[in-house]
Design goal:
About 10% of the residues lie in helices and about 55% in strands. By secondary structure, it is mainly beta. It has two domains: about 35-105, Lipocalin (Beta Barrel), CATH 2.40.128; about 120-205. About 25% of the residues are buried.
Length: about 210
C-alpha cells in the first residue's frame, strides 16, 4: 500500500495545477475621468495612482499632486510658470489657475440640492450671519444686535444658483467662489441677502481650507 501513495497523489497534483492555470488574473480597473463644468469651462479630472491627478482644462493637460487637506481632496502643481490648484468635495470643486478662480465646478450629471437643509452664509461691515435649516432662514445682523427669522420658501433655480424669496427677506446664491473680506477665507458661493430695502453681500457654503492665492 505504501508504494501506491505516490501514484495516487499524482492526479491530485495535476488537478491543482489545472485549477491554478484556469484561474483568471484580476487587473486593476482603469482610472475613470470625471467631467466638471466650471462656468463656461469644461474640465476633466482623472485620479491616478500615487496621489496624482490628471487635469484637462483650456486645452492643457496637467499633472497635479495631492497635498494635505482637512476635508475633500486637494491637488496642486507649479509648472511652466503657472500655479494650479484643484479642490474637490463630493460633487463640487474649486479650480484656481495663477490666482484666477473659476466659477464653482459642478460634476457633470449631478444635481444641485434645491432645498438646503444646512447652510451658512457670512458677511462683514457690519458682521452678519445667515442660517438655513430646511424649515427657516435666520438672519443675524448688526454684529448680533439684529435678528430676523422667516419660513424657508422653495428655491427658485437660476442659471448659476438659486433664489429664496420669503416675506421680508430675499436670499440669492451664486455658485461662484467668494473671499471673505475679514479673514480672506475662500467659500464656494457668493451670497446676497435683501431685507427692508437693504442688501447684505457675503459668502456662503462650507469654507475651503486655505486662502485665495
Amino acid at each position: 500500500m505504501k508504494t501506491l501513495l505516490p501514484f495516487l497523489m499524482l492526479p491530485l497534483v495535476a488537478a491543482c495545477a489545472l485549477v491554478q492555470e484556469d484561474t483568471p488574473q484580476t487587473e486593476a480597473a482603469p482610472p475613470v475621468p470625471l467631467m466638471f463644468q466650471c462656468g463656461q469651462t469644461a474640465v476633466t479630472a482623472t485620479v491616478l495612482p500615487y496621489g496624482l491627478l490628471k487635469l484637462a482644462v483650456d486645452g492643457q493637460e496637467l499633472e497635479l499632486s495631492a497635498v494635505a487637506s482637512d476635508g475633500g481632496a486637494r491637488y496642486e502643481v507649479e509648472a511652466g510658470g503657472q500655479t494650479v490648484s484643484f479642490f474637490q468635495r463630493e460633487a463640487t470643486a474649486l479650480l484656481s489657475v495663477n490666482g484666477n478662480n473659476y466659477p464653482t465646478c459642478q460634476l457633470a450629471g449631478s444635481q444641485q440640492v434645491v432645498e438646503l437643509n444646512s447652510y451658512h452664509a457670512i458677511g462683514q461691515e457690519p458682521g452678519w450671519h445667515l442660517f438655513l435649516d430646511g424649515k427657516t432662514m435666520t438672519f443675524i445682523g448688526g454684529n448680533g444686535t439684529q435678528k430676523l427669522v422667516v419660513e424657508q420658501p422653495p428655491a427658485q433655480m437660476t442659471g448659476d444658483g438659486s433664489t429664496y424669496t420669503a416675506q421680508g427677506m430675499v436670499l440669492t446664491i451664486w455658485h461662484n467662489p467668494c473671499q471673505d473680506t475679514m479673514d480672506e477665507q475662500l467659500y464656494p458661493d457668493t451670497v446676497s441677502v435683501a431685507i427692508d430695502g437693504q442688501t447684505y453681500a457675503g459668502c456662503g457654503g462650507t469654507a475651503v481650507e486655505g486662502k485665495v492665492q
